[in-house]
């Protein structure tokens, strides 16, 4: 099946502050929800969120908006062999990567987002892949013990697995971390907890 992710709930210290930040930074609408929670957590939370855009100017526009709204820069926007990207940390602690495979701009800057992708850090990619496959989640691409991209169809949020240490390195943060992920994934998988402790819940209409 194509597993659809309807939305994500982030556990944050202040719901109003989080909603204000994300509206100013990315304006993701109903794809993000917030819940006040005091769960213990430290260091890397084991996941990253990526925003894929069409050109470098859009990367700059989104990263600049996030920083203006209060984000911390982890990796400044820069060019690489694969394209252009930058990484920031939101005030609530979530790590966001904004990137494009394009090397040149072809239109005026905008904050239009083409894709939003949740990457889960897996201690054992093969075991985590099996967990999802056993529940009918289709695999789009798989690279051994390193990376898996799932087929989420027309879902507003894509899903992938990345080796935990590699995901932390890609995010530009130390791999050490413990406690709550401070994340709930709402989708057609229903109620479940994967091998790395990521919590899934049914689609919710609660704001």
Automatic annotation (TrEMBL):
Q: Which Gene3D superfamilies match?
A: 2,3-Dihydroxybiphenyl 1,2-Dioxygenase, domain 1
| Name this protein carries in UniProt | Glyoxalase
């Amino acid at each position: 099946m194509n597993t659809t992710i309807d939305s994500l709930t982030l556990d944050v210290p202040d719901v109003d502050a989080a909603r204000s930040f994300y509206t100013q930074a990315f304006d993701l609408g109903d794809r993000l929800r917030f819940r006040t929670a005091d769960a213990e957590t430290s260091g890397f939370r084991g996941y990253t969120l990526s925003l894929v855009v069409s050109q470098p100017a859009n990367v700059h526009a989104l990263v600049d908006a996030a920083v203006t709204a209060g984000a911390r820069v982890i990796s400044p926007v820069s060019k690489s062999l694969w394209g252009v990207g930058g990484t920031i940390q939101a005030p609530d602690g979530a790590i966001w990567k904004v990137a494009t495979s394009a090397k040149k701009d072809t239109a005026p800057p905008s904050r239009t987002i083409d894709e939003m992708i949740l990457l889960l850090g897996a201690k054992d990619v093969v075991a985590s892949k099996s967990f999802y496959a056993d529940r009918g989640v289709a695999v789009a691409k798989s690279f051994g013990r390193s990376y898996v991209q799932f087929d989420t169809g027309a879902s507003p949020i894509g899903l992938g697995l990345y080796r935990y240490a590699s995901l932390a390195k890609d995010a530009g943060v130390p791999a050490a971390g413990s406690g709550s992920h401070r994340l709930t994934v709402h989708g057609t998988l229903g109620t479940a907890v994967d091998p790395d402790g990521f919590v899934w819940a049914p689609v919710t209409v609660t704001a």
